[in-house]
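Attaching the record inline, Q. Sequence:
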Amino acid sequence: MFHRIITISAVTGFAFFGATPVEGQQTREALVSAIDAIAMEGIEEGRAAGMSIAVVRGSETLVRKGYGSADLELGAPTPEEAVYEIGSVTKQFTAVAALMLAEEGKLSLDDDLSRWFPHYPLDGRRIPLHRLFDHTSGIKGYTEMRSFGALTTQDLPQDSLIALFAAEPFDFEPGEALIYNNSAYFLLGKVIEQASGMSYEEFIEERLFAPAGMTRSRYCHKDELTPNRTKGYQPGPDGLRPADYLNHIWPYAAGSLCSTVGDLAAWNQALHGDGSGGTLLSSESYASLITPGTLTDGTRVRYAKGLTVTDRDGQDRISHGGGIFGYLSELRYFPEQDLTIAVLINTAGPVSPSAVADEIEDAVLGPEAPIIERSYSGDLSRFTGTYRGAARGQRLTLNVGVSDGVLTIKQGNAGEERPIRWLGSNTFARGSARYTFVMEGDRADVLQVDQVGGLYVLERVGG
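Structure, as predicted:
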């Protein structure tokens, strides 16, 4: 996707706050026009059917509107409160529901999985529930299993899916790595049902949607009429085509909620308040929700509970994206600015909601500060070699080399060699990814690859 650099004024973001009425209106209109242009680029090029965006700071709504088409066959424009499947943005709702039940004493984050699933084949392992929230359980993710493809259209008991992934070997021992895992959230949905005595759908709609004022949100069902619901699309050889069918028995607590950008902005307000916690959770539970934990070796991850926590110019960005048949989503919150950015698209690629949100960030807050390059003065050869280990849906092989005095990384034999910059100590970076080398004497023998939604532990292979 082509990214424009948009300059609103010398003052970053929302400059209309505190300005005179005329100056403020001009600045706001320019910012709205910039966001409109960002949204329409992929739509005008035929790469997305439609999109909805909300940008809210404090009590001020800057943008809440739809673009393009909700239904290409009918030529129906996207309404302001268009309903989309939000995919994995669902996970933060599941996490909050479980934390609510923990506050009520109906479960504990330290409960072993065997308390809720006594027949799950753990083979002597202990998996506390908190390992399900941040994808560090090691359980096989069902969406990465070939056998799951045959289930997507079927209407079967949900326990049949648990039996399917429970029979698979663990990807790693609990707490030793982080591999994004829909199975863990499927299990959390079942824990919520057992602990609350309610269906997952009932609990989310009554305990979360209602108090947050999310009047247009619901559990997704293909056999229900939903006002303003968009139709999902995916790329085909001759342009966009209707998305494949998916029975929402299967995404469940990992990805089966439907919402609007307006409702997601209301959710962020209810959840985060002004950045110090909202009305849904106690301060202790809220802190647990947004604070990433550690692996068993003490390595801190950047995935908390259904939310990632990354950095923008030294300030927190709390976010999560989603992808499901025909839909992509991105929801972000910036505590210091009390700022929400929500992007929903009714096409499963190639337009990225994360890239759209990045451009909106720059338009609202100004471009991020330039990266200050630092030169590594030591011997880079101690990091070079081939590293291999489990990643999401694959065995990942990375080749680390040196080119023109800079450390490089290449995936497999056919990948492109890319430079990585030194951050300090034995950690390097490219974009949001972090590469930390664990030393054995004067040479690295382990490479930790932190991609925010995954922290893969790769071991050196060969000499």
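The first strand starts at residue 50 and ends at 57. Residues 21-44 form the longest helix (24 residues).

More tomorrow.
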